[in-house]
Amino acid sequence: MFYFGVATAGLKLYGFLYYETNTVAISGPDFDHMSLSSSFQDITSTDSHWKITYEKPVNSSFTGLVRHVSVDRVDMFPILSHDFLVTTGDYANPDLVTTFVSDHHFRWRTSSSNALMGSINLLHIVPVSKDIYTTLIQVKNGDQVTIRGREISRIDYYDQSDAFKAFWEDSGCNSIFVTSVNILNPVP
Asked: What is the mean pLDDT of the chain?
């Protein structure tokens, strides 16, 4: 029974580290075996292909306080690396707004009867390069960041025989192909 308890605790710890921490020790997208088209619409690996459709032809920018960081682990979409909850105004105040992120969705609540000012955005991140990914690894809860890139409408996944298998679309969040990330005020 003791060994079962230790094994269970070990699996729970591994699951927490794998899904909920932002650490370089757990691998992200395999940039060494991926190629990106010049239009940023196609990503190809040795056994898969993803076609990206964008919401608009220009970049978007999200600046604010990070209130949640987790790594993305979606088997058919290993190009996704992180979920960041980026907040401004009242939404950045944990005494006023409580936030919760799970399974690529977020919720918030407040006890205030006043209209809230500011913004709250859950970013599902596809990094453009290993350098961007390396910077994303450094982002922590409480950091002030600016993240720029093109917002994604849909990602289609194809297997090695070029057969369509699945698609990714967010539901009210912001999937984004990140081309720039700046940590403005890092938490020590």
From this structure: 89
Residues 94, 67: Cα–Cα separation, whole Å: 9
Q: How far is CA 67 from CA 12, 49, 108, 153, in A?
A: 23, 32, 11, 24
* Calpha distance 68→120 (Å, rounded): 11
Where b means 16+ CB within 10 Å and e means fewer, 124-163 reads bbbbbeeebbebbbebeeebbbebbbbbbeebebbeeeee
What span, in angstroms and rounded, lies between the C-alpha atoms of 62 and 10?
37
- pTM, full prediction: 0.85
Q: Are 120 and 85 in contact (CB under 8 A)?
A: yes
Residue ranges of domains in the chain: 2-185
| Among 10-14, 52-56, 125-129, 158-162, the least confident range | 10-14
Given this structure, which CATH class describes domain 2-185? mainly beta
Q: Which of 23-32, 76-85, 157-166 has the lowest mean pLDDT?
A: 23-32
Close Cβ partners of 79 (under 8 Å, ≥ 6 residues apart): 29, 34, 43, 50, 126, 155
Side-chain half-sphere CA neighbours of 91 within 13 A: 21
Distance CA 115, CA 60 (A): 25
